[in-house]
Amino acid sequence: MFIDLKLEGKRVLILGGGVVGERKAKKFLGSNSKITIVSKDFTENLKNLSQKYEIQLKNTNEQSLDSLISNSDLVIAATDDENYNEKIVLNSKNKNILVSSVDNPFISDFIMPATKIIGDIIVGIGTGGKSPMMAKIIGERLKKHVTNEDILQVRLQHYARTLLKNFLSNKKDRRVILHQILNDREISQFLSKNNLKKAKHHVRKIIKLSM
Description:
Order of helices and strands: EHEHEHEHEEEHHHHH
Radius of gyration: 22 Å
Number of strands: 7
Keywords: NAD, Oxidoreductase, Porphyrin biosynthesis
EC number: 1.3.1.76
CATH class of the largest domain: Alpha Beta
Largest sheet: 5 strands, parallel
Strand order of the largest sheet: 3-2-1-4-5
Structural class: alpha/beta
Number of domains: 3
CATH topology of the largest domain: Rossmann fold
Protein name: precorrin-2 dehydrogenase
Pathway: Porphyrin-containing compound metabolism; siroheme biosynthesis; sirohydrochlorin from precorrin-2: step 1/1
Number of helices: 9
Pfam family, one: NAD_binding_7
Distance between the termini: 39 Å
């Protein structure tokens, strides 16, 4: 199941400062979460990222680590020691904190699927932890099928939904108009020419006629 969590202000703890930990950390960039990464060593990329984003790099002992887990909302076990990752998972579960181990999806509370961000569109592909490599390959294939018109349509639908909420309280009525906008030929032509401004103007006309 793919769930898009709202992580703004949430405390994310990643154990492991290697390539895998770096890859997991990058998935949280832009989420406005508070990221802490614990490791003996860190990749150069992580050191650079910590200067640009709200990422804390820490080298801590077992006692401090237990405290860090207790004060986290989400934990990722991404070390190169499978037994240690399992220990982190058990510690987190005992504290009722959501946790994921990079090398053992079966004991994890969640799995982070391969994601591709294309404009405002996020495509998530998962294999239940069976083959992250195949998830990545399939994601690249799907990415090729998302057009610029699709991205603009997402922005236009968001614009239309925002306007409609000010005029219509009934969700079914709003949905009918959104479908009309989605299937409107003139709007499709505007978007194919990358003219979002004219498409928005046409949306306002459709909404006005529907009132």
